[in-house]
Structure formats: C-alpha cells, structure tokens
Amino acid sequence: MNKQKYGGCVRAMLGIFIAAAMLCGMLDGAVPERVSVRGDALSEAAAEYGFDLDRETAAACLSEGAGCHTIKCTAKLFGILPIKTVDVSVFGDVTLIPGGVPFGVKLYTEGVVVMGISEVACGDGAASPAKDAGIREKDVICAIDGVPVNSAEEITSHMEECGGRPVRVTVMRDGGKLELTVTPVLSAEDGKYRTGMWIRDNTAGIGTVTYVDPEDMEFAGLGHGICEHDSGELVELVRGSIVNVTISSVIKGKAGCPGELKGYFSSGRIGALLKNNACGVYGVLAELPAGMGNEAMPIALADEICEGEAQLLCTTDEHGIAAYTVKLSNIDRSGRDVKNFVVTVTDPALLERTGGIVQGMSGSPLVQNGKLIGAVTHVCVNL
Questions:
Q1: 63-72, 157-166, 195-204, 219-228: which range is least confident on average?
Q2: Which residues, 6+ apart, have CB-to-CB distance to 273 below 8 Å?
Q3: Is 231 a known active-site residue?
Q4: What is the pLDDT of residues 109-152, one digit of tens each?
Q5: Active site residue 158
Q6: Exactly one of 158, 224, 241, 364 is catalytic; which is it?
C-alpha cells in the first residue's frame, strides 16, 4: 500500500512538473524580450511579469536619475519557475522640446571628393592632368604633398603654389590609400594652374528639427542619416554647422513624385553638428532655431504608442510651426533597437498645402497623447 501511495505521489508530482513546464513554454512567447518602464512603475512591472527584482537593484535604478538604465530580470511562474530572461529598460523623467522647424545643415567630410574628370584648355590644345595621373571619379583626396586637405579651396591653393611642378596626391579608393603624381597645366582660359578635376568638399541640405534637450541644448533632426548618393553609405563627418532656414515654396507631392520643401539658408550658424548616423543628425545649439517654442514634453515609452490618431509638427510656410492630424499604423513591436511605423496624413489642410509628407519634412516630430513618440524618416511614393 505504501508503495502504491508513493507511486501515486510521484506520478502526481511528475504530472504537475510537466504541466508547469508546458505552461512555462507557453508563457515564454507571451512574455516580451524587452520591457520599458518608468522608474516610478518599476515595482508594478516586476509584479506583473514576476521579475526577481530586489530592493537594492530597484533603488540603484531610481537613484541614477534621468536617462535609460537597462537591467536583466528573470520572469518566473508563481515567483518560482523561471520562464525567460528579460531586458528591462528603466527610464527617468525625460522631457524634450519638440521641434518642427526647418534647419540647414552644412556637413564637411574627411577629404575632398572627385565628382568628375575633364580636360583643361592650354597652350598645347587640351590636357587632362588628373586623368593622366590615374585619378578617378569618386576618389577622395585627403592630402597634397603630404599636407592634409579638407576643402576645395585648399586644393586650389596648393595647385596654384606649385607653379606647374608635379605634386603628390594621396587618395582614398576602395578602402585603401594610393599615392599618385599629377602635374597641373596653365589654363588658357583664366591663367591659373588646373588639373581637370571637379571636386566637392561638403554636403548641404534642409531637414526638420525633431527635438532639443533644454538641459544642454543638444538636438536631433532629419530622422535619417546623410548618405552618399552613389553608394548609399553614411557620409563620414569631420565637422558640420547648423543654420536657420526660411521656407520659400513647396513642390506638392503627387503619384510618382515625393514633393519638396524649398528654402534658403540664413546667414550665421546657430549650432554645430557632432554626429551623423542611421537615425539622423545630432549636435548642439547655441540658441533655439527661429520660430521654435520652448515648452518641453515627456517622451513616450514604446508600449505607450498606439495605432490611430497623432499629430505631426512641421513648418511649410512663413507662419511657422503647425500641428497636423495623421494616422499611425503598422507599429513595429519587435525587440530591434530601431522600430518604425507608418504615418498617413489625414489633415485636409496639410494635404491641400503639400499633398502629404514631402522631402524636407524628415525629422518632423510626432506627438500622441501629449508625449513625443518619434519622427518622420522617409517619404513613401505611390507609383
């Protein structure tokens, strides 16, 4: 009898264990890989997911102030059986000033890009010193006679000073460096020494400010990185400046045409560009861009963003920033660092003015329920 009771207990316990294991397996998919919470809601999140969160860890997260702090917690069934390890991102009370104003960016790269090769009219007819030296389109000139160069003006000055003697040109090509020798010729057109190279030393464009941090005047804008036209790779930044922009006109978007905000740069820079990455451009401002307010708002956590109505802040004319109604859909709930959603313009005023989202609006902040939730990144064109 005792053996029968013992066997029954073992079978019962084994059944409970198997059932618990199956339940843990089912719950593994229900528990997210990552959870984002505000510091004051950390205890509630721990209770909801069964995290093994000790008081010391919680206190440390809360004492570190604003910003994001990630800790690893184990979600447990009934507080006993481990289900999975979850990355918990704990956010402090971060508030940012939403943008919506246009800005101009002047981005200076390492070296000077060769955009084309041509001939130079000279006393003997025509010559192409750059071609003869082996210089190619898309080469990046980084030094002349061993002296680093970062502007077209510096290269022109070096060629003038050489007086027609051969000069050593260091170029970057396909990830490596080459040493080439070019001999400038005297142009019959302007009497200056030329090599027959068309060169570019910077990139300029218009975008929209996403936010400014009132604590340190750091800003983000554009919503996507500045890339090379041919390769699609991010432009390597050496230095850059930010200037005010005045919107002068709008090319309305339509099927097959993305449309564009047209504007002109104002004199004097208002900030410096420090970073260019896949999510946009970042830097620091000396002053707020013209027409931008100074009222900060909280940022939303990923799980606070929902499909439906939101507001897009942008500038399309001389009247300044305006809020337009848009619809959010296809929200990415994955664990990837960069997550996207689709923004559809529903506001009749913006549809009438621009036809929807157009080039130049990249970086425009999106607001939902009084919180900053993201920014416009790209224009989708219906063909």
A1: 63-72
A2: 105, 106, 107, 237, 239, 240, 241, 242, 281, 282, 283
A3: no
A4: 778 888 889 999 887 788 999 999 999 988 889 999 999 988 88
A5: no
A6: 224
